[in-house]
Amino acid sequence: MPLGRHLLFSLTLLVAAGAGGLGTWQLGRLFDRRERNRLAVEQSRLDRVDLTRQSLSGRIGFRRVRVAGNFDFGHEFILRGHLVLGTPGIQIVTPLRLDGQDTLVLVNRGFVPSPDAMSPFGPQRFAEPAAADFEGIAIAIPDNGDGQPLAGPQGESWRRLDWRAMDARLPYPIAPYYVIQLADSTTADHTYRGRTLPVRLAMPPLDDGPHLSYAVQWFLIGGAALGFGLVFIRRRQPVFDVPG
After folding, report:
1. I want to staple 188 with a disulfide (CB 3.0 to 4.6 A). Which of 29, 128, 195, 211 is the partner?
2. Would you say 62 and 89 are in contact if contact means Cβ atoms under 8 Å apart?
3. Which pLDDT score, from 0 to 100, does residue 123 have?
């Protein structure tokens, strides 16, 4: 096989292997999501837990909780790169000290629009009354060691929640789960498109997401690359007659 053909065939094998690896990765994410959904459905049927009297343990996902305590607005986190109604913005995550406990709980208070999707407009961060008593949904915080913090024009923002990375930034321990604050009458008196700010988050969807379709696409790309390589190397080279 000529060198050029050999190199091209090796390249198609690399593309096929890479696409197959990405397809397998998407299948792994699909199975993880289905397991998360199973756990969420299972825990959503359990009785509500009052976090001021009882702590959560074990695997946590979509557990209904009551939270009462005081927010620490001086140590809140900004999660960048989110959309609501087609508008870029951020999510505000604020530590809350539970009544009678030393460990704090991170509370996702909701969405605030931001032109750069990194910081809220205006000098304030939409503070609410420090004393809080509300219902929410507890979900385990990912623990990958890096939430990708990034310095911005108005302070630091994070790509995602991360338990170890955020716990290291705070002067007190935090629980390994966070609480999504549900909409109620205590929302701060700020408005956006007729809605108060922060805009409370909707429940995360319990579906398979796009992972299966992505996996199929990657496997098709890998198969096409491999098929092209096999057809190419099996093609006969033209034979030219040399004039006598």
Report:
1. 128
2. no
3. 45
Residue pair 48/66 in contact (Cβ under 8 Å)? The answer is yes
How far apart, in whole angstroms, are the C-alpha atoms of residue 126 and residue 112?
8
pLDDT, position 121: 56
Strands 77-84 and 195-196: unpaired
CB contact at 8 A, 37 and 59: no
The confidence score (pLDDT) of residue 53 equals 86
Within 13 A of 224's CA, how many CA atoms are on the CB side?
A: 7
Q: Who's near 239: CB < 8 A, 6+ residues apart? A: none
Q: Rounded to an integer, what distance in angstroms lies between the CA atom of residue 69 and that of residue 5?
A: 69
pLDDT along the chain (244 residues), means of 10: 68 87 88 76 77 82 89 91 85 91 91 82 67 90 85 82 92 93 59 62 74 88 83 62 52
Residue 232, both tokens: 């190419």
- The whole-angstrom separation of Cα 134 and Cα 123 is 26
Q: How far apart are CA 146 and CA 161, in angstroms?
A: 8
Give me the long-range contacts of 120-127 (CB less than 8 A, separation at least 24): 120/78, 120/89, 120/90, 120/92, 120/154, 125/73, 125/76, 125/78, 125/92, 126/92, 126/188, 126/190, 126/197, 126/198, 127/71, 127/73, 127/188
What pLDDT is attached to residue 2? 60
Q: Are strands 149-152 and 155-158 parallel, antiparallel or unpaired?
A: antiparallel
Residues in the chain: 244
